[in-house]
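Students often ask what a 'structure token' actually looks like in practice. Rather than answer in the abstract, let us consider DUF3097 domain-containing protein, a protein of 310 residues. Its sequence is given first.
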Amino acid sequence: MPSPDDDPRAGSAWGDRYGPDVLGGTRDPRDPRPWSARVPSRRPAARQVPAEDGLVVEDVETGWVGAVVRVEKSGGMHVVVLEDRRGRTRTFGLGPGFWVDGEAVELVPPAGRPAPARPTRTASGSVAVPDARARVARASRLWVEGRHDAELVERVWGDDLRVAGVVVELLDGVDGLVEAVREFRPTADRRLGVLVDHLVAGSKESRIAAEAGRAAPPGSVLVVGHPYVDVWQAIRPARLGLDAWPQVPRHVEWKRGVLTALGWPAADQADVARGWQRMLGTVRDFRDLEAAFLGRVEELIDFVTAPPEG
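Now compare that with the structural description of the same chain:
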């Protein structure tokens, strides 16, 4: 009788009553791995694609579609920031899980690039002055009504103001403006420019502005304002993914009403502060602001930096 060693089927698939494994995995009962791990994967790996600026991709999990605006490191990992067609941005971790032109891809950091050239323009659109040192502060001042106004002015005109030596100071409401002007004692060499919220004809603010102008020598004070309820509205709504700023009922505090309409937390002042910082972060340069605000700030800067007449 032939021994098992002589049987050509022994130790092969012929000796297995179920035949060979069509998936190519092992049936060794001593293998501790789950069955799915024993089967060699035949799924091709996603193609690696550098996350270059402007590349339009879709996040598979959320369906978010946007163009790559930058790749950066956050928390020790690479992330990609995508901007959709309405100007909204979201951040995702680099790696698999994206589509490009209907193809599953793995986003990877772009190849190293030479150091970017220095910007030739400031955020306000002015010609940049490389390595310019801040000028000693002028005697003239620029007053703005509120911290948010000051932060928005700094974000867009900060570089220009430092080069020009213009100091921006907070005005604690417009009601005390006339007395504050008298205390400042403006002159032709010590001018005062004031930016007021919601300065429209016939308003309380317009009457106070006119009186403030009469409280100092002619040509030493300029009070201008924007027509918005709040400086938040100076940001173009498209930067927040809106077609227009929300209409807030009169009985609702305006800022909290806006945050609620945006679906952002609005329970307390801390939420308002965080909401504003989120909005401010969407402002890249002067093109993200409304013309009615841009023009007034530029007018004030020109006024306080102009040489004395005569």
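One point worth highlighting: The mean pLDDT is 82. Ask yourself how you might have guessed this from the sequence alone, and why that guess would often be unreliable.
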